[in-house]
Amino acid sequence: MADVGEVLMSVLSTIRVPKPGDRVHKDECALSFSSPESEGGLFVCMNSFLGFGSQYVDRHHARSGQRAYLHITRTCKAKEDDNNSGSGHPPKKKPTRLAIGIEGGFDVDQQQYEEDVKVVILPDRQEVTSEDLGAMADVVRERVSLSMAGIMAADSVSHTLQVQQWDGEVRQESRHAADLKQLDNGVKIPPSGWRCEVCDLQENLWMNLTDGKVLCGRRYFDGSGGNNHALLHFQETGYPLAVKLGTITPDGADVYSYDEDDMVLDSKLPEHLTHFGIDMMTMEKTERTMTELEIAVNQRVGEWEVIQESGTTLRPLFGPGLTGMKNLGNSCYLNSVMQVLFTVPDFQSKYVSNIDKIIDEAPSDPTQDFKTQVKLEKYGLPNMLLFMVFSQGDQIGIAPQMFKALVGRGHPEFSTNRQQDAQEFLLHFINMVERNCRSGSNPSEAFRFLVEERIVCQQSQKAKYTQRVDYIVQLPVPMDQATNTEELQEAERRREEGDSSALTVRAQIPFAACMAALSEPEILTDFWSSAVQAKTTATKTTRFASFPDHLVIQIKKFTFGLDWVPKKLDVSIDVPDTLDLSTLRATGQQPGEELLPEVAPPPLMTPDVEVKAPVLDDSTVSQLCEMGFPLEACRKAVYYTGNTGIDAAMNWIMGHMDDPDFSAPLVLPGCSSGPGTTPTESLSEEHLATIVSMGFSRDQATKALRATSNVLDRAVDWIFSHLDDLESMDVSEGGRSAAESEGGRDPPPGPRVRDGPGKYELFAFISHMGTSTMCGHYVCHIKKDQQWVIFNDQKVCASEKPPKDLGYLYFYRRVAE
């Protein structure tokens, strides 16, 4: 074996020192969930700075030719067992700060590690420690030492994407504090016995620090709190600062700035209080601070403990399909959704059965490849047992940092560390799968179904049928159908009377009532009827034109109050384990039923102005073309639906796909345009030359420009997002496919849907805790081998009392007959 010093010298030119902007993956393998804590540690390429687990580093060496890797291993330090409880575990401290990862905040259970670092040369895996470098040539020692130090000092990609700590109590000094105007009006505030000067409320009271007015605070969305009198006083006077009475102690108090719309610090608070006769040093706390109130909301027994099954001792589970996922900072929505998708056979077969092929075909930087990262999600959870470590009662779980960064890249919400709506993320992920599976099997088809909408003009009794694609059934919650109305009214009465001992009462809504609200006809009061050529009243009923293999039901718990403040409905719904939707299957046109004529609404006419062809919404036309429909059909769909959006245009396409002239050019009223003379037939030679200069063929450039109405920038974006389609396309010189050129009698099919019986069984549900989708926490329950299992981030346990009545998203699979 060659001397290790000579080997290092031979590969020295490939060893780089990280520069600002380099992405250093030193916490997670690019092809698995291996980390420095895993068996075998992590190998970081000293040229590309990509990390690889011990099972994949040889594969990377063979493909790239790189030989020098920094080998990082971490060993968990044993924790001292302070203040042992009877179970052998330290008792969990109650949070006293609205914070994550700092003293007094919500515990994230940070672990301490011992770290070992050395250089490994492949393929023989020769090792070089920092001490070994001391005996080598100066040029080798300097270059390798700088690279090692640079890699270890660099912020890892996962670190830059992950929130390590968050403190909700960090407050800034108010800009009004230093020069606050205080009126010499003789007002003196007693040390107790306060009441709102407007409504006599005795709690949630705030004293304005300018004039000493004592008024009640804001009314919360659930009806609690105050009556907004302190806020109204600021709006009338402009006096900005107020202190919450009952929170004043020698250490400070809650101060709110209405002008800055936030809790603030007032460095002159003792002086400002003394002005109204209040001595901070003698005051005692009698009310909960705003922080304590928020912490209480985040630990609400009525929902949080029930959904997380906190009241029972849960048995941890291990094995294939039972690996948890670390919370990367408000990523529980992603964890819950992906855990459920892992159980769907279509996703398993797409990303697990051909894992070796995916890895072999992965690009040089697999961290930026969607297919590879989805493979990690699918493959990692069922099979990577090495992560199923049990430490102090919690599974460590896997941390999908690269996956989260990739699926959120470019998205204004999912690219952040803020909490998100699980339903919106599910649709976002399905959309990404759709875009990346154009030329192969598409697992999203498991959820895809057709909805038939039947609109009946009440004046002519003629009907119109349209179909659209959907992935989720949104189930309304009819609050007026609650079965415990008297209990709800009594609880509301006691809350209005200020009875703090009143128990929270949750509305009991029958599932049958929700289904009835979904299927009942909707009244359209402003419907333009082509039969009577005027606006009139119509009814719209919605039915299933197909039943998917897997059905997702969203309970519409999030809504807006009369004041447009978002709120969450606190309801319990008796969601069934089995579901039969057969009665909701669409029947299509009925015998003897007349259809509404296909006539577009008359255009808006302006006197003495030349009437021109309407401008079509290019973005909608482009979106339809991307789905594989002919350009002219897309243009007609947008025209005949009056530029009203993608849903309406899609409905038109689904209803006209069998028309003999489906792919024929759009001929506008009053125009003599025929085939070959539509505006899009004339393409800019300059635009064509620009795209061809990028390495694409003229046929490909033509297709891109036609799909984007001859707009160069959009055509370039379109062509790069349709590379898979362009590689396999058969386009003639004129830009049309051979099939279209020969008459186009067989238009391409629309989105494929599966169909079968409408009978289902519940296999998973996702629950949300908190007051809105932008805060709180998600967990999921999945039925595995007839046993309900709770996935609460990295914790995976056997469920004792699955709270099926409190779910947000429910997942059903078809029952085989």
UniProtKB/TrEMBL annotation:
Its EC number is 3.4.19.12. Substrate binds at W206, R218, R219, Y220, F221, Y256, Y258, D261. Residues 731-754 are annotated as: Disordered. GO terms for biological process: protein deubiquitination; proteolysis. One of its GO terms (molecular function) is cysteine-type deubiquitinase activity. Zn(2+) binds at C196, C199, C216, H229. Transmembrane segments: none annotated. Residues 323-815 form the USP domain. Residues 732-741 have a biased composition (Low complexity). The keyword Metal-binding applies. Residues 172-280 form the UBP-type domain. Residues 615-656, 682-722 form the UBA domain. This is Ubiquitin carboxyl-terminal hydrolase. It comes from Amphiprion percula (Orange clownfish).
